Amino acid sequence: MTEEEARAWLSENFDVSRETWDRLELFLSLLREEMSRQNLISKSSANHIWARHVVDSAQLLHLVPKQSKLKTWLDLGTGAGFPGIIAALLGDFKVHLVESRAKRIAFLQEIINQLNLQENAIVIGSRLEQIDGFPVEIISARAFAPLDKLLKLSHRFSTEKTLWLLPKGKNALRELQALPQKHRKLFHVEQSLTDPEAGILVGSGQII
Description:
8 helices; 37% helix
């Protein structure tokens, strides 16, 4: 997917207002500026940011069932803001951005302030294992941890209604097959739009 194709895909699949386009552009501008101070995304993907990061994140919103009333979103290890900031910009969610590194916490808070996302996003500046559990309806994690560890760290946030959206690259099926059957049966693999060899683990339910 080229950068032009990525922008076209966003226009075709989301009702992106001029204001939202401007906020997306501002987000990416601030991200590029911050790259001189900290390593937020790989240099190899910086020239393909719309496809490799924006659309790669936005496609997760299409895995949320239409007419869904799911609103509370927990994004683990948000880092540069993918997918959490994109979900807050393009969807009607309250996104909790979990990030433990001080510089990235400061960056995410600045993004929220600059983009006026206070009603849609909040930064939780802590390691996940130090956060008290609370029920959420969507859990996402992009390059956060191996699947078995991810579930051990985050299961206390899940309920029987929780939707799991976990991009796992080329290892999606392998990581899924390594889970116990009681957990494996909750998930299936969706192919990524941005990489035909990559998979997204989509799950539904509570991890006990």
